[in-house]
Amino acid sequence: MGVGKIIQIIAVLAAIVAGLWSGFPQAGMVIAILGALAGWFVAEEDRQRVLVAAIALSIVSGGLGDVPAVGGYITSIMGSLASLYAAGAIVIILLALYGKLKP
To answer: Is the Cβ–Cβ distance between 95 and 44 less than 8 Å?
Structure first.
């Protein structure tokens, strides 16, 4: 298991913990940094899937808020995952832009 895979696992676990435990004051910053690092290590053939997942998560992250008892937790976790994937997507877009512009 490489460094990229370990960072991706830690990032997803941090997003889940941040979604469940709202008392973590710097959760957004930690998720953004881990998402950016995870985006850096995404293989080139998987980049399109990550971009689609980032779009899909940001669209559907609040869709289960009305489920009794667990809807708030699910919505919070999905929102954290959407933030994680959005940070990774930004890095992927910047890497693609750099790849196009470099001589």
So the answer is: no
Least Cα distance to 85 among 18, 34, 16 occurs for: 34
Could you state, in order of their start, the residue ranges of all structural domains in the chain?
3-101
pTM: 0.89
Tokens of 52: 């689609």
- Tens of pLDDT, residue by residue over 22-80, are 777 888 899 999 999 999 999 999 999 999 999 999 999 888 878 888 888 888 889 99
- Separation CA 92–CA 52 (nearest Å): 12
How many angstroms separate the CA atoms of 63 and 4, rounded? 30
User: What residue has token string 């693609």?
Assistant: 96
**99 burial type by CB count under 10 A (0-12 exposed, 13-18 middle, 19+ buried):** exposed
Q: ∠58-61-63 over CA atoms, to 5°?
A: 130
Q: Give pLDDT, residue 22.
A: 75
